Amino acid sequence: PARGAGRPIDGARPPAPRGTGPLTGRRGGRCRCGRLPLVRVNSLPMAGVVDSNGNGNAPVDTRDSGPPYQAGAATADNQIDNDSNVDEATDDSEISSSGETTDEILEDGIAGTSPAQTIFNIVKNIVGEGMLSLPAGVAAGTGLMVAIMITAVFGVLLGYTFSAMGRVCHATHTKNHKEACQVVSGSNLAQFMAVVLMLKTSFTCVSYAMVIGESYSAVLRGFGLTGFFTYHYTVLIIIMLVILLPLCLQRDLSVLSYTSIVGVACEIFVVTFMQFRLADGSYAPEGKYYEIIPEPKRVSWGDADGPDLFGFSVTTFVLLSSLATAFIAHYNAPKFYVQMRRRSPRRFNRAIIVAFGIAFAIYVWVMTVGYLTFGKHCDGLILNNYSERDPWASAARVAIGIAVLFGFPLSFTALRDSFMSVAGIPAEKKRFFFPVTITLLVIITVLGCLLHDLGLVNSLGGAIFGALITLIFPGYLLYRASRLQAKGSKYILGGIFPKAEQSVTIGVICAGAVLLCFGSSIVLLKKFSPDVLGLKPKPHH
Question: Is-contact 460 523, C-beta < 8 A?
């Protein structure tokens, strides 16, 4: 049928002309009986339960109705109305086959983010303190160029799946993983996704809390301070109350974009410092700080005459396992998309390309300058190689502490959203927002004070949950959504997914399954048989 037309079932009347139909978005309109004026709803999240054939009940408004997806019967007549309504809503919100839209409705009190703000939030969500471990991954036995190529592969692959989450949310009119899965698959799997996201972000936030407490306590002691206010738990509690609580109470990601800018600037400062020290040769033989640092931290190339560019060894698998989750921020992908002003898949993809490009550049930069400065002796936290007498190294340590601090609110946002999703608490209800935020922050703070290392549980959970969140979940949702689109489902906007993408998504899901098993095996080998990977066993304390 022509665009905007419903299926001619039982002689039903044809749809009203564009601009006058039930879901017109500009010139208003009236219902079919002609008596009641209709309000604009085309940009609100609509979804329904679908079966394997792409059929189901009519879309429902999810703003204040509790559970967003209710099952029900649909008659032939309202099927016609629904199909025509979707088409007319698509026309009037100017969503083309390329996914370009010029109008949407954000939640109350949400200003939304510009593309630049979205870029900084994504970069900060991706890049954290973990970047400082990359030079050691290269030094363990991987050629520099091989490491760069592995980083590029994962950057492209995970950038694609990050984009996939935005497109799925756009096509299904949903706001998170759980809602999208309920539309394209079912409630049981949707709840499982929400639980996995909650567990992953819980580990992330507790890890952040431990790092913040320990690192800022060390900074204070480095300035010669002692006493109660330098204890890690005292420092953590003060930082939580004074800095992180106000940031975590922000519902609008545009506010967090400013702290993201500061965090990214601090990370760039750290790498710039490392580049400067490589250039001036301060840590090279005969350099200013060469004799000051311990011999195990001085530059060394082992038996080689210089840096290894194309080497490959069993330890490369350890680096590969680390890089598999280096670009993870997918738990926030739907929120980044939904809160983007004038959002569309095309605009979102542009932001993703820039953001992942910046993250890739930072990773390659720190990996290169760290390895070329210290060679085979790169520490697992590269800043530990630099002398404590180096004032710029001290500044770099403070800068990375600030970057870690401003990464916490973004991860906490994902934790709060996933917790509310699991618990069935409506996220748009402001009366639940504050108590949930306070409760979760208290739990994280207590755990951050009591724990010093999450150990095997965190490492193994990171490998398993990372593969699920970055590859398997996006691949599956994209596969299901593209199948429903091909079947002409009324719950999926047309023209979003190319036909060939179903085959691609199967490959993504398989890659995720392989990385899940591979990453888990590496974690277990590092813990119980490090010699198999060419690693030295860690001493027991």
Answer: yes
Any idea which residue has 């790092």 for tokens? 211
Task: List pLDDT tens digits, range 158-184.
Answer: 999 999 999 999 999 999 999 999 999
Classify 61 as helix, strand or coil.
strand
Contact indicator for 381, 133 with CB cutoff of 8 Å: yes
User: Helix (H, G, I), strand (E, B), or coil: what is residue 457?
Assistant: helix
Beta pairing partners, 61: 46
| Residues written for the chain | 541
Closest CA to 415 of 191, 206, 110: 206
pTM above 0.90, yes or no: no
In whole angstroms, what is the distance from residue 184 CA to residue 181 CA? Answer: 5
Q: What is the chain's mean pLDDT, rounded? A: 81
Element (H, E) at 475: helix 473-486
pLDDT at 427 over 90: no
- Alpha-carbon distance of 254 to 116, in angstroms, equals 10
- Kindly report, residue by residue over 105-151, the tens digit of the pLDDT: 566 678 899 999 999 999 999 999 889 999 998 998 899 999 999 99
Asked whether residue 476 carries a pLDDT value surpassing 60, the answer given is yes
Helices 345-374, 115-126: inter-axial angle, 10-degree rounding: 40
Crossing angle for the helix pair 177-184 and 187-222, to the nearest 10 degrees: 160
Query: Residue 40 and residue 30: Cα distance in Å, rounded?
Result: 11
Residue 307 in contact with residue 148, Cβ under 8 Å?
Answer: no
Residues of the chain by 3-state class (helix, strand, coil), percent to 5: 60, 0, 35
d(CA 221, CA 223): 5
* CB neighbour list of residue 209: distance below 8 Å, 6 or more residues apart: 236, 240, 408, 444, 445, 447, 448
Q: How remote is the C-alpha of 292 from its chain's centroid?
A: 41
* pLDDT tens digit sequence for 197-239: 999 999 999 999 999 998 899 888 878 888 888 999 999 999 9
CA end-to-end distance (rounded Å), the chain: 72
